[in-house]
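Minutes, project huddle
Topic: does the predicted pose make sense with PMT bound?
PN asked that the exact inputs be recorded in the minutes so nobody has to dig through chat later. Recorded below.
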Amino acid sequence: MKSHALLQNRNILLGVCGGIAAYKSAELVRLLTKAGASVRVVMTEAAQQFVGALTFQALSGNPVHSSLLDPEAEAGMGHIELARWADLVLVAPATADFLARHAAGRADELLSAICRATAAPQWLAPAMNQQMWQDAATQQNVAQLQAQGIALIGPDAGSQACGEVGPGRMVEPSELVETLAAQFQSGLLQGEHLLITAGPTREPLDPVRFISNRSSGKMGFAIARAAVEAGAKVTLVAGPVTLDTPEHVTRIDVEQAEEMAEAVMTRVADASLFIATAAVADYRPATLEAEKIKKGKGETLQLTLFKNRDILAEVAASSTPPFTVGFAAETENVREYAQQKRSRKQIDMIAANQVGQPGTGFDADENALTLFWEGGEQSLPRATKQQLARQLIEYIVERMDEKS
Ligand code: PMT
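Predicted holo structure (tokens), as shared on screen:
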């Protein structure tokens, strides 16, 4: 999978130290943001002698942080908030002095304090004169940091800005981005086959009209992407949406609930995991008019609707069902209705979301979910659909492991 997909919606905190390689970090920010990551830059005082903070601000689209005791920052993104915000901390370039400070457990400037306070994985890309890199104290600091689980990328060897040749060059930004992206490939669903539905269905009334809903497919597509990241083979049965197919996903486009049911039921035997994210129409018009329905004389128009097949319930009732996850879109009594749906449809897990509120649910980029399974539940607070999708996959894997 390409790096840009794996980095989408990731929060990357980039620490920039004072070395000539700091100019390369500007390109790094550009590549990370291009890959869809959210980047916040923390500069040491020395770094600001090499590159202006404005460069990083313009490229990341976020204010640059540099002071540990900045009253304004403390009110907004202080060191604890930044430490919590980060999915990954990358320090590039990491100078000999920074490695020494980090190894010594210092916390007297912003970047070191964040490194102390974060639970996110930390990656350091050293850059310094080759003699400084090979110095015994530097090597001791490196060994100590590695022993603490902090990873190093590089340095590369070659000709240096100081005119010497040897190890100490910062790894090129494009390679750094590839390495970081690989960190997010979890392998949690390696060997599994996910069959997933997403988007709305359209139930036609006549050649120009249909019954549908506001589902955009974003939640389901995000889950498909997260499953690929986790190593799964993914087949996505999509209703009519305008989204691009995530990389490495086999997509089958359908329109009506009946077509979605057929597409799912002919493939379910090969799947080890089924997730029903689609907002499937519960009913379809009893008749499909061949010509456009004309306005009648009366004030009302009666429509007769037939009930559609319940795809999720059919999958759960199949002879060897995969691990089955449904969604519940509710405007009220979310918890009660979702739990009722889970037991009625006899599925392994249900992800409930409150819909009808601005900013989450249907057609929004964010959502909030509560997961219910036999004997347990977990709420996943409001976040982007991509972040929630990744969390959802982790909980599903836990339950799948428990069941097997
Ligand atoms: O697509 P987005 O804009 O990103 O919005 C995401 C979402 C709000 C659509 C999604 O998060 C969601 O809640 N999907 C399920 C919507 C829904 O139809 O819920 P439901 O409570 O009506 O159905 C319960 C479950 O049964 C769902 O898993 C549904 O896919 C499944 N179902 C329902 C009817 C049917 N005939 N067949 C089914 O498989």
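Observations noted during the meeting:
- DSSP finds 16 helices and 19 strands in the chain.
- The pocket of PMT is lined by residues 197, 199, 215-219, 257, 276-280, 282, 308, 310-312, 326-329, 341, 353, 355, 361-363 (CB under 6 Å).
No decisions taken; revisit at the next huddle.
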